[in-house]
Amino acid sequence: MVNEILLKRDLAEHFKIIGLGNNKDEAHSKDDYRQAHSIKRSDNLKKHEKFLESNGGKLIPFIANGSEVNPEKIKVRLEVVDTKNISNDIFRLAALNWSIPVSQGYGRRIRFIVWDESNNKIIGIFALGDAVFNLKVRDDLIQWDSEQRKRTMVNVMDAFILGAIPPYSNLLGGKLLASLIKSQEVAGLFREKYKSSKGIISNDYKDPYLSLVTVTSALGRSSIYNRLSLGGDKIFEKIGNTSGYGHFQFSDDLFQQMVLFLNQNNYETLGLSDFGSGPNWKFRIIRKALKKLNLNYNLINHGFTREVYVSKIAANAFDMLNGNCKEPDYKNLREIEEIVGLAKARWILPRAQRDNSYQYYTNDLFMKNIKNG
Question: Disulfide check for 164: which of 141, 169, 274, 299 has CB 3.0–4.6 Å away?
């Protein structure tokens, strides 16, 4: 039984702990972003405690010591994660590296591990998932109407996870990973996986081609995506910011209390958690709960805006998305080998020469960083 007064109190105390005050228009530091996500991250670590205890020892050897990394010899291999083998556990471990808990993605998901073949260690991970249906800055850029968006949204994906892990993160490995999204191999792997897929909601065959990838910054202004270009090619371009609305500020425990509270007050919540039953189900539940509690709906405005970037995978991406052509123009996409060569010359080798701190990283620090945040 959920008590209404206690639930209101718990919500107020929770928002105070994570630092969500009344002034949502003020600029936020990266530490503010981390503090706002601190309880969510703690919830996430609790879910993974047994996994880390059981698998940490066998997975840590895939994390490089700095002494094992030779920037000049870095050679990239891309692996698509398979839920049935160890790649799934490796990806899961790497995803715990960041102070902002990573999304699990929605709908279609294709996850990648980026390996350094020179030492068989992990450079980092990234993953593409179904993009959110409503994103104003993206939709204004494409000049979509709602019907056309329904037809061609299948060609758009969102990079819901992307990052290099130490010691490669010290060598600007994140910029390398972001550049790999715009590669022949990624476009080809996407096509191979989804060419015969059917829509979860519509149940229609979609025949998708990867045309556009969106990404949002984790900590306000992005040092990875901002004006990211390589060899004369723009990889990501900033198109605006999110509105600052969301539900990350509601912890898993509070959300479950809201569900129980609605159920005991005869509100239907069953079935809303399935992807195929409709979008934004968490918003609907939170909105109903706030109304029933006589709380301000504006509590879903956390005020933490994020930068939104797009990468045009197909040169004719906007024509594809507006229905003016049916096949993508991939002629300007580079192969991974060429991208790595350019990235090493542009970012990795100059950083290694300026700052050799990566050499002193030891992989035992990886687990300590996960547990200590």
Answer: 169
Instruction: Spell out a b/e string for 308-334, using b for 16 or more CB atoms within 10 Å of the CB, else e.
Output: bbbbbbbebbbebbbeeeeebbbeebb
- CA distance readout (Å), 166 to 98, 109, 119, 357, 372: 11, 25, 14, 11, 16
Q: What is the pLDDT of residues 236-267, one digit of tens each?
A: 999 998 766 666 677 778 888 888 888 888 77
304 token code pair: 């933490």
Angstrom CA distances, 313 to 137, 156, 163, 331, stand at 18, 10, 19, 10
Q: Please check whether residue 313 is in contact with residue 187, taking contact to mean a CB–CB distance below 8 angstroms.
A: yes
Within the chain, residue ranges assigned H as helices are 4-17, 30-36, 38-47, 49-59, 86-94, 136-142, 146-152, 173-180, 184-194, 252-264, 281-292, 317-321, 336-343, 349-354, 364-372
Which DSSP category does 205 fall into?
B
**pLDDT band with cut points at 50, 70 and 90 for residue 142:** very high
Cα separation, 104 vs 111, in Å, equals 10
- The answer, yes or no, to whether the previous bond of 167 is cis (omega within 30 of 0) is yes
- Window from 28-32, 146-150, 186-190, 238-242 with minimum mean pLDDT: 28-32
Q: Of the candidates 179, 81, 62, which has an alpha carbon nearest to the alpha carbon of residue 129?
A: 81
What per-residue string of b and e applies to 106-123 under the rule 16 or more CB within 10 Å gives b? bebbbbbbbbbebeebbb
Contact between 178 and 124 (Cβ < 8 Å): no
pLDDT digits (tens, 9 = 90+) for 277-287: 434 677 788 88
Residues 84-106, mean pLDDT to the nearest whole number: 83
